Amino acid sequence: MKKPDFLKVGDIVGIVATAKNFLPEELNAGIEIIKSWGFEVRVGKNCNNHYNQFAGTDEERFSDLQDFLDDQEVKAIICARGGYGTSRIIDNISFSVFETHPKWIAGFSDVTVLLSHLNSLGFQSIHSSMPVVFGKNLNRPSINSLRDTLLGKLGPFHCPYHELNRMGYAEGEIVGGNLSILVSLIGTKSDISTQDKILFIEDVGENLYRIDRMMVQLKRAGKLDKLKGLIVGHFNDMSDNIVPFGKSAFEIIEDAVKEYEYPVGFNFPAGHEADNRAFILGAKYNLIVESKETVLTYNVNYSS
């Protein structure tokens, strides 16, 4: 996987909206925080547009992303928020300039479409919180982890023990993101390979039977059997039917991978909660799941 250059103070960071719309004031806190890191911020010219539920028309959202991908002064692109809409524009984007002059692209949730597409092209990206979220959930460890990742300061993650963990050790590139999006990408140009990888998944606002259906789909598509390890992030705001499904989201995931032997770490601090730590998709990490905690460490000796 090709790694873009880490940023330095004074670099330009672009903000684009590839999915759902928001109020302009919702972005202000995020802009000021990014500026406080020592970066110059440029906001896409269409970023505050509204077209039904989207942040502008498909053409407007595409245009902002394409402009910043092609602008060599912009050293990183952070997506403003998720929602839905990135898949509507991904096939129109040209990565020809980006492939020669790669830059960090960061986000999560619906932005999993873009991050997975980059992975399929052979480029690393950042799974992280986003500027609209900064003002709503001012979780400093989460926000600062994005700053540190952009600057190349990549410390280890320590996650408390969870009773469903399966202990073990693994080394591999991390791939993944939002479970619903990953399933929707199967069979497309943005689909990811999970063979010999550490898979990360998270989700929000789903019915439990749909979590089961998506895990079955991953399994049938051959996405679970050749993993090096599995990291399970936040699965919050789950719903159930009148007749209960009978298992929690974590229990559904545990059941889906029970026949495999790789380590599994639950409740990793990433996903749709305030504590959403940044890490690099496509980079190699060391995963240790042990009796007291789960530790995820960036492999500094790995060269892409």
From TrEMBL:
Q: Which family does it belong to?
A: Belongs to the peptidase S66 family.
Q: Which Pfam families has this protein been placed in? A: Peptidase_S66 (PF02016), Peptidase_S66C (PF17676)
Start and end residues of each LD-carboxypeptidase N-terminal domain = 13-127
Q: Where is the LD-carboxypeptidase C-terminal domain?
A: 171-287
Q: Which residues form the active site?
A: S109, E202, H272
**Is Cell cycle given among the entry's keywords?**
no
> Its GO biological process terms?
proteolysis
Alphabetically sorted, this entry's keywords are: Carboxypeptidase, Hydrolase, Protease, Serine protease
> Would you tell me the protein name for this molecule?
Peptidase S66
Which molecular function terms from Gene Ontology are attached?
Answer: carboxypeptidase activity; serine-type peptidase activity
